[in-house]
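Practice problem: predict the structure.
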Amino acid sequence: MRVPGTVVTLEVTVDRHRPTPARNPRAPHLVYASDDTGDVVLTYFRAQPGYVEKLLPVGAKRYVSGTLQMYDGMPQIVHPDRVVDEEGFAKLSGIDPVYPLDRRSGAGLAASRDRAGAAKAAGVAGMDQSGRNPPLQVSADRGKL
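Answer:
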């Protein structure tokens, strides 16, 4: 059963390619593949010429893993997380490690949000939700006694 928005791993046979047209380099390279349950489109944006054809040769069996989405009534996987042949699939452990965020990968942003949330919860005046002080506002009666 294929549920859109979930990560799936499919054993597919590559049916055909629709490469990016030369006149429109922003269009995706589409790979039409199928398995026993139906068809799926593998979508690659800005792929190097020849890369997708080498990775997914027509007629070859490949194991493809990624987030399944529906586009125009057709199941698709945009930039699959993994594409391996039978030999590569046998070598996979089945467990993908998930590493925590660190400074280089966004922890600073998370900490900034945490500070803003803590300040809001504590009732600290003058701090907006991004954790920064809002711009000063000048009142209309400034300077009057």
